Amino acid sequence: MQRIGVFVCHCGTNIAGTIDVKAVAEALKNEPGVVFSTDYQYMCSQAGQDIIKNAIAEHKLTGIVVCSCSPRMHENTFRKTAAAAGLNSYMVEIANIREQCSWVHKEMPVGTEKAIILGKAAVAKVNLNAPLTPGESPVTKRALVIGGGIAGIQTALDIADAGFPVDIVETKPTIGGKMAQLDKTFPTLDCAACILTPKMVEVAQHENIRIFSYSEVSEIKGFVGNFDVTIKRRARYVKEDLCTGCGACTEKCPQKKVPNEFNLGMDNRRAIYIPFAQAVPKVATIDADYCTMLKTGKCGVCSKVCTAGAIDYQAKDEFVEEKYGAIVAATGFNPISMDKFDEYAYSQSKDVITSLEFERLTNAAGPTAGKLLRPSDGEHPHTIVFVQCVGSRCAACAEKGKEYCSKICCMYTAKHAMLTRDKYPDTDVYVFYIDVRTPGKAFDEFYRRAVEEYGVHYIKGMVGKVSPEGNKLKVQASDLIAGKQLHIDADLVVLAAAIEPDKSARPLATMLTASMDTNDFFTEAHPKLRPVESPTAGVFLSGTCQGPKDIPETVSQAGAAASKVIGLLAKDKLTGNPCVAHSDENMCNGCSTCGNVCPYGAITYEDKEFRMPDRTTKMRRIAVVNEAVCQGCGCCTVACMSGAMDLKGFMNKQIMAEVDAICK
Amino acid sequence: MQEIKREDLIAKAAQLLADGTVDRVIGWKKGEFDYDVTPAVFTSKEELENEFVWNDFCGANFSKYLRKEAEKTESKAAVFLKPCDTYSFNQLLTEHKFDREKVYAVGVPCNGMLDDSKIKAAANGISSVSEENGKVAVETLYDGKITLERNEMLAERCVNCKSKKHVAYDELLGEDGEVLDSARFDEVAKIEAMSADERFAFWQNELSRCIRCNACRNICPACTCEKCVFDNPDSGVENKAIADSFEEKMFHIIRAFHVVGRCTDCGECSRVCPQNIPLHLLNRKFIKDINGFYGDYQAGAEAGSRAPIVDFTKEDLEPGEAVERGGENA
């Protein structure tokens, strides 16, 4: 029989406010096995932990139940407390009477009754607990960064600088991401390329970094410290090691009518292309959708002009398998589609553009060589209307846009407006906004400058409709402060489209078994205290895949993610989780179901000789769990129809005892 | 009437024994009555000629015998498999239940087997059953000879035969058939259409007849646990003999859950039930649901295939959706 101690925490008023903690401690005194029960204001405090330690010694406790917050919060704390007092860490059970009880109930009697039931369940479980000892697993000292934008670049550089090898996987032919498409960056107005491209070059030249561009992750197996990843390298039909990036092929390719995605389709490129001058790797790529040679077998111009002999029309997708200790998701964002916002006439007029398109229009390397010209007729626009929050903060229109604030639009719109007024003082610039949000170092000053020094017309109110009429765009809007309707004849309308996570994030999250929120942003392990870690061990988050952010924030988070990765890779061994599966060989019938459902490949089968009742022996196939690989997810235990598979620390018997205690 | 004759089977079995391919043959022999055909192991041509039976009562599925025989020695055993038996055969292979190398499978076409309980209901005091011009001729003690329509005497699982195609064999006698479009889920749909109370009453009525002889469990090709959950005191549902309303409420439901995704719908549970409980309907309900939720899946159609409930694809429907689609019948 166990000797169990029960410790009920007040958590200040967090628990004690809705739960009669004394009554809980009193009620649990009478449960089977309980020899000591008490309550205290803060069980996790030094004094609280001392109460536990003293009770373990004094009452010779063999197991303890702490009725407190979620085990995600303090299970580890109390396990350490128990260990310090000489009790096996896994003889500790937490009854969550805070998140799942006091915080969801308002009435004291209801909360107290439930807390007692939860405590009884934990006592019932601990009665069946057995001491467990964790094993160890090695750490592969290599990191994978998925996404090669500024987030991925910074994370990779920081990890590589600490001496660990890093691979970057980027779906595009070049790294650089969205930042490479930007013109200037707020609030200092540095040229984006000027500050980004040196980092891209550093990545290319770093001895610890490999770039898999034009590639994607196709399979992820394993667990923290030991991920097995398959990377699909899409055929670019150009040998990366031979191509010198001279660009001769991109000038001679006869297929000139390919929409240039780097300039968001506002001009054309060839079928063989280098996305932009500073691309890394600076290697051409053939677009198989447009290449005449690949489609019809007739052309071959690029192959003829290539002096390096780098063109390879026979290239096939290749798969690279690599082991990693840690994985960083840095999959970034995209502006949402404007299809559902036809009131702004985006599909009807070329002169209604998104802010990212505006970036390209003002960029020296863009389709207009940096001159702000209307896409429709190449004329200089004299009246420009910026519309903020297109699809952001769309609580009432969630099917069209996003409920969240995209965070960066206020600042880049102020930047666009200011730069336009600076370069073209003859232009009238209007900005329509719901609120102007400028928290951030030197952000509000920046916005004030746009209004006060550059004379941008900021109007609180939303644009209701944009209708193209002749070569003008009739903008109908409301001015909420003046309380009147406005009609503006604009030459150009710029929509600050909401941003959303890249579409590749959802399938990646599935492969990583990392959790996501309803908007497909990756969820952090803790929103405040562990913001760059996924709840899945060994998976870290960098940049906008976790939530909207600007560049400074992205870079800080990228560095933070890198430091977490470095902390992990610096370890030689990881202490495993002893709550792993175990197969009872006398019950196992070797059917292979557990091996089929195991996501970690932890189960193998072997033939074992068994002594039979009639003194004969029999060879039987049985399942064997590799405890170092098992992550204790429990899939096998529910799939095993023989009931041979069980999870240490969460045995079927223990779970049933908890259910029984609750249902009694 | 079966298109392959007894003599053909005996000749094949004798040949396999003679040329040393196998040293024993699993087949059928006559039981106490004509309709009591029972599985048996033959080791010589003489035994075969004296006792081997192939007629309209050879419904028994050899899975359990097959496993035992395959474990016995290092040499091969031959087994005759009707189309439906080949599904069980594959399912056993999927679960590594016997060594394929130790079995020589001979596929036999089947025209459907008769249900002895239907004949017994139609005729009293049966002394012999034979086939006459495609009809079933029954000699009785009290009413003389009775002639019955074969179609009406077919076992339910044969009326709703799911496949005349052999999905596994080393050698096939006669012509292979096709997978059939059976109406086997119609009966399930009828039960689904009942209100919850009606359905409860229906099953309580059926299951209350259970005498807990365990025949359904012992014959079931999918029941392959080393220690049955009902025999294991640690399981929490141990119950070796009829004691209370456990059979009515839990036993058969637990059994159905245990074979979900693995049941090939061979119908042996219902065939052997001395109380004529339509146990196959429980399994069929699961098969129907799996087909509806995850797309058609036939256990045993392919050796090594994975049932949707122990497989994961990104196209799988969300659990919430399953509950929603289950609706009132969930």
Structural features, described:
- The complex is a heterodimer of chains A (664) and B (330).
- With 664 residues, chain A is of the alpha/beta class.
- Chain A is built from 19 helices and 34 strands.
- In chain A, strands 10-7-6-18-29 form a 5-stranded parallel β-sheet, with helices on both faces. In chain A, strands 20-27-21-22-23 form a 5-stranded parallel β-sheet. In chain A, strands 2-1-3-4 form a 4-stranded parallel β-sheet, sandwiched between helices.
- In chain A, helix 7 (150-161) crosses helix 8.
- Chain A is globular and about 90 Å long.
- Chain B contains 14 helices and 8 strands.
- Chain B has helices at residues 6-18, 45-51, 63-72, 83-94, 116-122, 150-153, 156-159, 186-192, 196-207, 215-219, 246-258, 268-272, 280-294, 319-326; strands spanning 24-29, 38-42, 77-81, 103-107, 126-132, 135-140, 144-148, 171-172.
- The longest helix of chain B is centred in the C-terminal third of the chain and has 15 residues, at 280-294.
- Chain B is of the alpha/beta class and 330 residues long.
- In chain B, a hairpin with an 8-residue loop joins strand 1 and strand 2.
- Chain B has a 5-stranded mixed β-sheet, with helices on both faces. A 3-stranded antiparallel β-sheet of chain B has the order 5-6-7.
- The model of chain B has no long low-confidence stretch (mean pLDDT 90).
- The A-B interface holds A 507, 510, 586-593, 596-597, 605, 618, 620-621, 639, 641-644, 653, 656 and B 71, 94-97, 224-227, 229, 232, 234-236, 258-259, 262, 306, 310-312, 314.
